[in-house]
Design goal:
Radius of gyration: 21 Å
Oligomer: single chain
Distance between the termini: 45 Å
Length: 401
């Protein structure tokens, strides 16, 4: 069934990414909503409060004085056995960073969406992925959506991953601020009963919770080998999340009539001479650029990274193997490497290929600047040229004079 096809019971609505996230949360029936507004995710929280006022969302609400308290309240609710949701962006994500580390280190399965936004300084309120890249080593699972439909779907998948008894790790659902957060698209909203069936596997899952009848310590002080054991088990849980997201398509298809798509989407890769790698909403434009370049005789394909943490190393290596060159599109800057964050991970994964393949990085779309089709067509041409032996810089900044 195609993504746009409707099944009996589906509702097709036109909505922006923030509302799509809110509908996904509504279908997951959280017990607590912790909120603090920050652009561009504020309309998501407003929509959830509207659902509550209409009697659709039966959840406790906590309006806090800042983002750190918002995540802390969600952690407390989940630690006692509930299901919680919160959302943030940019500097709000930085403000809650100690609670962010606590949630993952204590394996508290919170779900939080991040409508991505650049950070200061310079001061700006515009789109970019620097915020989620700054916390990529914080121990959370990170899903990055391309479309409004995928935002809703990813919220459902996020709770399945976070609350799985073999995982128990918090999850971020990330989507590009101002592009997806405020872009309206058709979105298929499934029936609540369908979401309930999909989430039933974790609805009765057993996990450690705070209980006066069986006291536990959360946030214990540990040293040495016990600390290493915490980290070792956390790493294993992250890898189990990668395995589960690859295996969920059958259940997702049975529940909603479409596949989720796993950790990486492969687009026109079967006979590709070169492979472009990207993530987020810009991949929609990149697909158009690839289509046009194919019409011009250049065989290019796309690997869109949907799960950024844990990084889909094996899946990506499968798609990179046999290509003449790899091009990586980044909307963030890894300062110490003079490159983008995705590029650094792709370079590391390329070491698994057993062959030397040119990898070129394209950085663009910072601070809300458009990644135009013409720019991305040039990126495809440049990648093809590298594969044919033409010399050039390893990092190309798009849109700079």
């Amino acid at each position: 069934m195609t993504p746009g096809a409707l099944r009996a019971g589906d509702t097709l609505r036109v909505m922006d990414g923030n509302k799509a996230a809110a509908w996904g949360v509504l279908l997951c029936r959280p017990d607590l909503l912790a909120s603090y507004p920050i652009s561009p995710q504020t309309p998501l929280l407003e929509q959830l409060y509207k659902f509550r006022a209409e009697g659709r969302l039966d959840a406790e609400t906590v309006e806090v004085e800042g983002e750190n308290s918002a995540l802390s309240a969600a952690v407390g609710a989940v630690a006692t056995g509930g299901r919680a949701f919160t959302a943030t962006s940019s500097m709000g994500l930085m403000f809650m960073y100690d609670a962010y580390l606590y949630a993952s280190g204590q394996r508290v399965p919170v779900v939080m969406s991040v409508a991505t936004r650049e950070q200061c300084a310079p001061q700006t309120v515009s789109s970019g992925q620097q915020d989620i890249m700054m916390v990529k080593e914080g121990g959370w699972i990170q899903l990055i959506a391309e479309s409004c439909q995928e935002i809703l779907d990813s919220i459902l998948v996020a709770y399945r991953l976070a609350e799985d008894p073999n995982i128990q790790v918090p999850v971020n659902v990330c989507y590009d601020g101002y592009y997806l957060s405020h872009l309206s698209e058709p979105v298929r909203v499934p029936l609540p009963a369908e979401a309930d069936r999909f989430l039933a596997a974790v609805g009765v899952a057993k996990r450690p919770v705070l209980d006066t009848e069986a006291p536990l310590t959360f946030g214990a002080f540990v040293l040495g080998e016990m600390y290493a054991e915490y980290r070792y088990k956390h790493c294993l849980a992250m890898q189990r999340a990668l395995d589960l997201v690859e295996a969920l398509d059958g259940e997702f298809l049975a529940a909603f009539g479409r596949e989720f798509g796993g950790s990486v989407e492969a687009y026109r890769t079967e006979d590709a001479e070169v492979l472009l790698v990207g993530t987020g909403s810009a991949c929609g434009t990149l697909k158009v650029a690839i289509d046009r370049m194919r019409d011009a005789g250049l065989r290019a394909g796309l690997a869109r990274v949907r799960m950024f943490r844990p990084f889909p190393r094996r899946r990506l290596a499968e798609l990179m193997r046999g290509r003449r060159a790899i091009g990586v599109l980044d909307r963030s800057v890894c300062f110490g490497w003079n490159a983008g964050h995705l590029f650094v991970d792709v370079k590391a994964a390329a070491a698994d290929l057993g062959e030397r393949v040119p990898v070129v990085n394209f950085i663009g779309g910072l601070a809300g600047s458009d990644l135009r089709r013409e720019m991305l067509e040039d990126a495809v041409r440049t990648t093809v040229a590298r594969g044919r032996g033409e010399a050039g810089p390893e990092v190309v900044w798009l849109g700079l004079e």
